[in-house]
Design brief:
The structure holds 2 protein chains of 2 kinds.
Chain A: E1 3-14, E2 17-28, E3 32-36, H1 43-50, E4 58-63, E5 66-67, H2 72-78, E6 79-82, H3 94-104, H4 113-123, H5 136-148, E7 154-158, H6 166-181, E8 185-190, E9 201-206, E10 209-214, H7 216-221, E11 227-231, H8 235-242, E12 248-254, E13 257-262, H9 272-281, E14 288-291, H10 296-305
Parallel strand pairs in A: 3-8, 3-9, 6-7, 7-8
Antiparallel strand pairs in A: 1-2, 1-4, 4-5, 9-10, 11-13, 11-14, 12-13
Helix pairs in contact in A: 3-5, 4-5
Chain B: E1 3-14, E2 17-28, E3 32-37, H1 43-50, E4 58-63, E5 66-67, H2 72-77, E6 79-83, H3 94-104, H4 109-122, H5 138-149, E7 156-160, H6 168-183, E8 187-191, H7 195-198, E9 203-208, E10 211-216, H8 218-224, H9 230-238
Parallel strand pairs in B: 3-8, 3-9, 6-7, 7-8
Antiparallel strand pairs in B: 1-2, 1-4, 4-5, 9-10
The chains are: A alpha/beta, B alpha/beta.
Chain lengths: ~300, ~240
Amino acid sequence: MSNKIEAKILSKSYGKVQAIKNINLSVNEGEIFGLIGPDGAGKTTLFRILTSLLLPDSGSATVAGLDVVKDYKQLRTAIGYMPGRFSLYQDLTVEENLEFFASVFGTSIRENYDLIAPIYAQIEPFKDRRAGALSGGMKQKLALSCALIHKPKVLFLDEPGTGVDPVSRKEFWDMLRNLRDQGLTILVSTPYMDEAELCDRVALMQNGEIMAVDTPQGITAGFQQPLFAARSDNMYQLIKDLRAFEGAADCYAFGEYAHLKLNTGVGAGQTVADIRKFLDSRNHRNVEVKSAKPTVEDCFIELMKN
Amino acid sequence: MTNIITTHQLTRTFGKFTAVDAITFSVKEGEIFGFLGANGAGKTTALKMLTGLLSPSSGSATVAGFDVWKQPDQVKRRIGYMSQKFSLYEDLTVRENIRLYGGIYGLKMSEIKSKMGVLLEKLQLGPEADKLVGALPLGWKQKLAFSVALLHEPKIVFLDEPTSGVDPLTRRQFWELIYETAVTGVTLMVTTHYMDEAEYCDRVSIMVDGKIQALDTPRAMKEDFKAESMDEVFRRLARG
């Protein structure tokens, strides 16, 4: 497998703020690679450098074998880019937007219809509607169609799921997997940790740096400490109490449960029964305790703290 | 427990489009209430009516005992509002933002002064008081925005996607603030696209096409739908 994206010690500052620091990254051909991190992690800066829209201060990068600085003209026809903010012309119709993007790249809707068909067909009934009047999920499908219309080799999607509801997000990920299976390489960024599990590999980003790169399974396998899930009728009190449990490293809410992480030393011998006994002694009712599998989000918090 | 929000057949149309379709529900005092729905389901329109910013086409609603249509000013005085997108002025300092919002919420200068000290102390923002809000890390901004929304001691605070785009640790610290506030008797109405956060609410409602399709505790809702998670409940409801 050849590397479709290769970045070497990329850095970029805005004034005194270092947006990305010495980023090294390789993305393989035909994989969905996720950049996972909160706002301000440097995801968009990295995207803009890799799509030739921003010059790095130092370091170098290639996409599909093309240098992001020297070969920027060829590079732009080889990639599709869907920026985070809605990038379409609000006062053009659905079809006009698509035609516009096709003509910019010297192609036509008909020529590449096959690639976009599964996505575009869903919004085609509304092709005469102005893009500004579409729902969030439909806008996203149109933006993806426009990014694909010139048959790019590499697709860049900057936070396609932000502000989009879980249902539309799930449909969107189904489309991405479909595109990947057709051989497209996809770099996608998201602040939603649960979406990490939908990528082939991920990089966890925070404050301009990559904290870890691996498959989602590899990331969670790196979590060493004992982890438990607990709940009771008073979750707020439960979290506060569990932080005082002997051997506790930290405790945070994770959906219906709180995750209690123990230190490898002092906490290693503690069992589900010990935690239950402790919670009973603190007068918690309807207590449930079980051992838990770490999620990517557990790992992210762990990495943030180190 | 008394109800802090009650709506009866609350409806709002825009031309031929019915954004909110005869919703009837209530929120109890001191509750953390999750107000969920897909994009375009009508959440924002409903929230605008409950905060006195948009008048209903028909039906009625009371918030903190006042009619949202007839007494919107009384309603506004008793509610706080925070969204992640817009809350604080980035080019004003921390101190200036607190003073501005204190003034908008009608507090006396002496009250603002005393609250300023308490708030800066509580958030440990003392050293940052004269820095521009735009220069603060996102997590601090959020905590400040939330505290500012509580400045006039409202009965109920509306939090519109308060945690979107925030790192997982800050997101959790923010929810602890929500819990902490609920314990003092303040009601919190929260919208979110993070389904794990739906689990943190006492009760949640899910809107689909302008209607409230389900309203219950997260646990009961999951049992009803025989679902593993709120994410699954949401997906089934929102796509039939």
